[in-house]
Amino acid sequence: MTTRSDPSALRWLVGVELTHYRKLSGLTLVQASGETGITRAKVGHMETGRYQQFPDDVTKLMTLYGAGRADVERLASLAGSSEGKSWWAPWSHLVPDWFKTFVGLEGLAETEFSFEPMVLPGLLQTEEYAQAITEATGFVRRDHSERFVSFRVARAKRLTEPEPLELHAVIGEAALRLEVGTPDIRRAQYKHLLALAKRRNVTIQVLRPEDGPHAAGTGGFFVLDFARAQSIAYAERLDGAVYVQDQDDVRTYKMAVENLRTVALSAQQSSAHIQSLIDGS
After folding, report:
1. Which pLDDT does position 89 carry in this prediction?
2. Model's pTM, two decimal places?
């Protein structure tokens, strides 16, 4: 687990797994409460991640659910580390609650796969590009725009930290050709993509219409993998997001990931394609 702290995201991860293991055991909240002596309300709050989960309580529940010793110790350890202040706290009034959870999870993840068919992923945007697209979309109040861009820049540093996120991004060609800002802003953005693509922890692939159909359809999504927690998938809507926690469903997303990696241009071909946009601008 990385050092970019977010206790609420950690509690969320612990809660997701507690729910998963309880359902696997076939026990209800009432039954789990009765067997462990932990109140039903507290078990419920532990599953939602609303409040601090204590390692002893997590150990009791996971043992009751029949989890293996390694999983019991792993989850208890996670619960014991969910303290401190969220890294995004300075921007908390600007970021919607559903997105706070995602950036918190992203800060804790080891690897991230991102598919964005129509817009460049926020992690890959330059400050000027982020400013231009933020102003154009109108989702952020004009007087909050500058602060929101500073949040995006801080989030993007996840790729250059001492223990950086390993990012694999598949980007639709339409996202590259989207007219955001001035030609100079777009040219600088292309050069930024090429510079990031040279990093060991960043892989960028471009998906063109002529590359043919793929398993992801038209919707963008993310898959996050963690060192000590189960993977999750995430997809945004206009007014919120969907978090996919069931591991069978997550595996479906991972099958789409492998298909996209195969269908899209290779990393080398993608860099050449982005360079051609610079040369032609």
Report:
1. 81
2. 0.86
